[in-house]
Specification:
By secondary structure, this protein is mainly α. Helix content is 29%, strand content 0%.
């Protein structure tokens, strides 16, 4: 079998004919892979709760006022 890095052999070992460009200019070099981009920084996730028409602080204020009245 041919060498593993032979550009005219496919991975299964079969021979392929060179293209016209390969006949004129020689084997084509392997393309360079770009470096992977770093993942963007993400801050902590803020949990979302149900939205209501009444603010939750009003219940706490009313409870504090009731406690002070006693």
């Amino acid at each position: 079998m041919g060498r593993m890095n032979d550009p005219l052999r496919s991975p299964d070992g079969r021979f392929r004919a060179p293209t016209a460009a390969e006949r004129l200019f020689g084997p084509v070099p392997a393309p360079e892979l770009p470096e992977p981009r770093p993942k963007p920084h993400r801050g902590p996730a803020i949990p979302a709760g149900p939205m209501g028409t009444e603010l939750p602080e009003t219940d706490l204020i009313r409870a504090a006022l009731r406690h002070l009245r006693r």
